Structures are given as structure tokens and as C-alpha cells.
Amino acid sequence: MMKTISEILSALGIPLDKVEGKGLTVTSPVDGETIATVEIAGTEAVDAVIAQSKIAFEAWRAVPAPKRGELVRLFGNKLREHKETLAALVTLECGKIYQEGLGEVQEMIDICDFAVGLSRQLYGLTIASERPGHRMMETWHPLGPVAIISAFNFPVAVWSWNSALALVCGNSVIWKPSEKTPLTAIACQHLFEQSAIEFGEAPEYLSQLVIGTADVGEQLTKDKRIPLVSATGSTAMGRKVGPVVAERFGRTILELGGNNAIIVCPSADIDMALRAIVFGAVGTCGQRCTSTRRLYVHESIYDSVVPALKRAYSSVAIGNPLDEKHLVGPLIDEQAYTQMQNALALSAQQGGKLVGGERVLTDQFPHAFYVQPALVELADAATVQTETFAPILYVQPYTELTDAIARQNDVPQGLSSAIFTTDVREAELFTSAMGSDCGIANVNIGTSGAEIGGAFGGEKETGGGRESGSDAWKAYMRRATNTINYSRELPLAQGIEFNL
Ligand code: NAD
């Protein structure tokens, strides 16, 4: 596996001058060292990108959808070719372990495959008309330039979920990656451009990248030429983006914070539950939108599950994520570490009993932020309302399943949830209308690690957006209802008489 930035960039064929600009300093969370500086897009540059994207859209929308799928197929193949290298870059830039980096690139490949199939299935309905000699149908058309604003923790997959669908739907795309992870974005853009050359018929500027901080994102959200803004990040970000886009009657797909819980019932397969809980809570160092943050364990098994969990926590290998023996890498930066410590201090004030949470490996990595994942046992009634983007798992016992479900739902966010049970009544209740209120409700699977085939997203302060599989593609298109009169009469709907 390649471990240095210069090795990785040269394997991907990216010229070094792209990462030796002035402006944004890129720091690796692995050791806290600077690995690149990249140019930030100014206001005029962003404006030009939007204008170019509009022109590209006007050409691309006329290309038949299955042909558009061919470009995405080529891009998927390019990702297959560079999977290991891109995964190493993901690890180096955002700190997730290499296995998860590989998983993230695989997710990109999967969504490309899905989008290729979809390019022949952008179906509309045919609807019975009430008028003789008439036919009604729905047609789906592309929207225009789609802005994709992404978060640091899935630096490449989120873009691909959006762009693969947006492109087969006939849109152009503009990507504003997290300011913490611009290198992976530069790499993806480079691979996409190579695929576009191979394809031969893509308009110039079909997919573009604008690097910068929140103000670059804000410029995209305000611009009327962009009919759809797909924004992934914190609820605080969505609270700003949503009204700005709505004010100009644009559309959004908001994929925001989660506060995900697992319920462990008395009949659960405990070994399986323990593995799912530990992966969900400590994987990606607790920095997944779907990370497990709360655990409700039935009182009859609480005293065996919690000690077993503590034992599992103490054996998790923490360290350099590029080294495959480690299962937990670093937090993204010092700010994330401070937020974690603040949340732990607050739960201690609320009477929580804490294990873990301390900073580790400071001798080896004095400028990086590795932590022992934390487990906090909370008093009965307490709920945890905010998402702290760090490995903290709050544990509480429960007596009645209905009460556990109510507590699970009693947070502002509604992304992912899970129940571990072998009792069909409990499983069905959890997935029913009286059960979990989240966009994702799993049985005997943890909260994180969704497949691309399903629609991904959550309710309430998670934003309500859906991306990826199922019919999420419809958000990237506009629907037209067409009524076609093939008769020689002009009957009006609802039988209205209007005799001239
Ligand atoms: P963040 O909100 O700090 O930043 C996300 C992106 O939004 C960045 O590109 C940032 O520059 C941009 N941004 C910030 N303010 C903006 C504004 N006013 N206008 C336009 N753009 C703006 O989030 P982060 O720290 O990078 O990521 C972590 C958060 O993302 C967590 O809350 C996590 O749950 C969430 N997340 C959600 C999903 C999901 O699918 N629901 C997926 C991944 C991450």
C-alpha cells in the first residue's frame, strides 16, 4: 500500500503543481503534518464555473440517457483500476482505516454500476385519461447544474452517490468538497476527466470542482442558475443552506447529522450484537453520520452486555490507519477532540459513568488526535440530544420495548437505528409505523454500513433528503405530465362545457 502523498499522486498521474498552490493548507489527521496546499476558488472563478456548467448542461441533456450511462461506466472502471491508491489517499486525508477507505471506493464503484443500469430505467408512468382519444404520461427531464457540497468523513463516496445519478439523469455537476479533504476531490476529478476523454463525447466542464471553505458553498447555494443543491454535513450547515436555497425556490437534498441508536432485546444474539455495536460506535473513530451513539439494553441482560462491551473496547487496536492491524484511526483534528472532551465533561456532570475517552499515542503522534473510544453509562431518564462527532457511546438500560423505542425516537435527528432481537414481534414493531422514526431502521444489523441499493437519508434534523438507490434519482430530475389528444374533439377535463 502506498503511504506517502507524492507516491499516491504520481500513481494517479496528478501533477504536483495541483497540490502546491497557495491558499488552503491540507493536514493529514494521521500525524497532523501538512501534506499539501491547494488553491481556493475566488468569487469570480466560482461564477465562471457556474456559467460553464450551464453551457455543459445544455449539451449533456441532449445526449441519450443510456449513452450518458456509458460515461459513468467508464468512470466506474477507472475507479476499479485505482481503487487501492484512492483508498490510501482517503485514509491519509481523512484518517479512516485503510479497510474503510477501500470500502468507500467500492461504494463509488457500486453506485456507478447502479447508475449505469438506471440510465436505461428513468421510467415515467402512463396514466389513463378521463377524456376519449387522450393519453396521459409522465416524462422525466434533467434539471441543470447540480451543486454537491460534501463533508470530510466520506470525502469521495458522497460525491459519487450524487454525481453518478445526476450525470445519468442529464445534469452537469459542481462539487464543493470539505475544506478538510480537497485532495481526494482533486483525485476524483482527475479520474473523471480521464474517463470523459476516453468517452469522447462529454461536453467540457460537465463535472467541475470548486475548492474552498463555507463561503464558496454559500455562493453556490445563492445562485439561481443552480436548481438543485445536494448538501451533506452538519445540521448547523443544513439550517443555513436550506432557507437560502428555498428563498429562491431552488431544491435541496439535505443529508445532515445523525444520533443513531441500537436497542438490544433479551432474545438477541449477543455475540452478533456486540460486534455490530463496536463497529458502529468506534468505526471511523465515531465519525460516520450513521455511527452508533446510543445504546438501549434490556435490564435483564444489561449486566452481562455492558461488561462484555467494555472488554471489547479495551481490546480495539488504535493507531496509524495506514497500518492494517489497527481498527481505529484518529479524529480529524483538534477541534473534534475538544468537542469530544466537552461532551464527556457534560455527561460526567449529568452523572454519567465513563470508561475511555482519553487522548492516546501522543508520543508517537504529538500533532494528531487519537483517542480511546468512550463508553458512558447514563442514569435512566437522560437522553442525549446532540451529535458529537467522536467515538462516544451512551448506554442505558430499558424495561419495556415501547419505552426504548420512544427514547430512541426522542432526539431531534432521525438517520439510522437498529434492533437486535430474534423475536419476530419485536422486530416487526420496530420497523412498523409505531417503531423507529428514522430513515434507516435495521434488524440484527448495526446502524452504519448502508448498501447503495437502498435510498439513503434521514428524517427531522437529518434533513429529509434521500440519495443513492431505490428511486432517489427522481430528486435529480423534473417531472412533466403530458396529455396528448389524438382525437378530433377538444373535450375539457371535468366535463366543463365551453362553447364558443
Ligand atoms: P460541516 O457541516 O462542517 O461541513 C460540510 C460541508 O458544508 C463542507 O463542505 C463545508 O464547507 C460546507 N458548508 C459549511 N457551511 C456552509 C454554508 N453556510 N453554506 C454552504 N456550505 C457550507 O460538516 P463536516 O464536519 O464536514 O461533516 C460532519 C457532519 O456531516 C456530521 O454532522 C455528519 O453527521 C454529517 N454527515 C451526514 C451524512 C448524511 O448522509 N446524513 C453523511 C456524512 C456526514
Automatic annotation (TrEMBL):
Keyword field contains NAD: yes
Enzyme kind, highest EC tier: oxidoreductase
Domain Aldehyde dehydrogenase: 23-479
EC code: 1.2.1.3
InterPro entries named among the record's database cross-references: Ald_DH/histidinol_DH, Ald_DH_C, Ald_DH_CS_GLU, Ald_DH_N, Aldehyde_DH_dom, ALDH7A1-like
Domain of life: Bacteria
Entry keywords, A to Z: NAD, Oxidoreductase
Matching SUPFAM superfamilies: ALDH-like (SSF53720)
GO molecular function, one term: aldehyde dehydrogenase (NAD+) activity
Presence of the UniProt keyword Phosphoprotein in the record: no
Active site, per annotation: E255
Quaternary data: Homotetramer.
Family label: Belongs to the aldehyde dehydrogenase family.
Protein known as: aldehyde dehydrogenase (NAD(+))
